[in-house]
Amino acid sequence: MDVPGFALITGGGSGIGRACAKTFARDGAAGVALLDLNHDGLLAVKAEIEEQQRNLAKDNSCRVEVFVVDVRNEDQVNTTVAEVARTFGRLDYVVNAAGVAKKHEGGAAFAATDDWQRVLDVNLTGTFFVLRASARIMLNQPRLLSSIDGRELSRGVIVNFGSILGAVGVSMSTAYTASKHGVLGLTRTASEDYAAQGLRINAICPGYIETPMTTQDALVRQVMAERVANAVPMQRMGSPQEIADGVVYLSGGRSSFVTGTALFVDGGYTER
Ligand SMILES: NC(=O)c1ccc[n+]([C@@H]2O[C@H](COP(=O)([O-])OP(=O)(O)OC[C@H]3O[C@@H](n4cnc5c(N)ncnc54)[C@H](O)[C@@H]3O)[C@@H](O)[C@H]2O)c1
């Protein structure tokens, strides 16, 4: 998929972030840095990647570094992003997959302030902190060369996590829907800030994907099963790998003229 260089992935200890990390490693990244709150999850994904790379037929070593980081913490984010760039020598791809979801029983009128703040802090402000720290580093590094045809690619690529709920709304999702609409706005404005200087900044918008986020909570599971049956043209949930494929496309040389966009990977949900 033409992803030489080094990737940093938040939320890398679970679900879609985990699938992204494994796909970058498999498709040719020289190193991946995984950031998450969940230390055990990080160590498990690191071990999975190392096992995967050993089992690949060709020589495919990929350095894996893990960092326990709360993306809401500005200082931790700045320090860790700088450390990753120092460790790898550069920072080519940043995937902002850390996120939390919350259903507010009774809808917006009954949503708790704490829930609103937590979801906005992780999904939107956390994405901003990581984007800002990464862009400052990327703007000062030379462009990466394609591993396929040697042409100059970008100075750096950032993929933010929107959602179908970045474009539409469903009930009981006040904070999450607002946060994901915000991520698309952040993506659009930041992409324009740096398009001419060689940064590409895009969003990926998953539909209903089978991960711990969607399978652990009974209310979420129930709402989702109804939506999948009635509103997803493909009538199934997606897999984390199907989202990772979109992320690696948006990161690699095959999307070298793509910036400021949102790629919906949703089984057709938003065509309706
Ligand atoms: N699963 C879906 O159906 C779906 C749909 C649309 C968008 N998304 C988005 O995809 C992204 C990944 O979600 P997922 O389904 O893999 O969820 P997940 O719960 O499996 O993984 C999310 C990861 O983010 C980490 N995280 C949470 N808060 C954090 C914080 N403050 N700092 C650092 N890490 C933190 C968690 O520890 C977890 O490992 C999220 O942004 C989510 O909103 C998911």
UniProtKB/TrEMBL annotation:
Gene3D superfamilies: NAD(P)-binding Rossmann-like Domain. One of its GO terms (molecular function) is oxidoreductase activity, acting on the CH-OH group of donors, NAD or NADP as acceptor. PROSITE patterns: ADH_SHORT. It comes from the Eukaryota. Pfam families: adh_short_C2. Keywords: NADP. Belongs to the short-chain dehydrogenases/reductases (SDR) family. This is 3-oxoacyl-[acyl-carrier protein] reductase. It comes from Cladophialophora psammophila CBS 110553.
